[in-house]
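Record passed on here:
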Amino acid sequence: MSNTLVVEESAEKNERVVENRRLTPAVLTALGVLATIESVRLGLGDLTEPGPGAWPLLTSVGVLVTSAWLFITGVERCEKVMISDLARVATAIASVAFFVVMLPLVGMPVPAFVLLVVWLRLFGESWRLTLVTATLGVVALQIVFVELLGVPFPIGPLAPGR
C-alpha cells in the first residue's frame, strides 16, 4: 500500500490517472473534524429539543468513524481516477458553493435551477431532459418546502408577489 500520490500516463489512451490509498481517508477526516466543530458551534440542544447542530454532529461522527475505519483497514482496492473525473467533482462542489452564495442574494429558484442543470449535465443527461427536470424540480421544491411546509427561504427578486 502506497502513501504517496501517483499520477501516471496511460499508454493506451494517453490519459492521466490518479491513484492514492490514503488521500480519501485524510480528506474525510479533515471534513469530519471541521463539520464536528461547526456542529458544536451551532448548538446541540438536548434530547427533547435538539439544536441546529444536532443532526450535523451525528453526520460528522459518521464521517469520522468511516474515515477511521479506512485508515485502520486501508483501502484494499483503489480504483484509478481519471483527471476528468476530478474535474467533474470540482464542478459539482463549485455548483453547490454557487447555490449557497446565491441563495440569500436572489432567492431559491435561480440557484436551485442552476444547480440542477449543472448536476444533470454532469451525469450526462440530454439538454431537453435537463431543462424539463430542472424546471419541474424547482417548482416541486417551491410547492413542497415553501407552500406545504412553510420553510422561510430568502426572498429574491423572482419571488411571487414581488
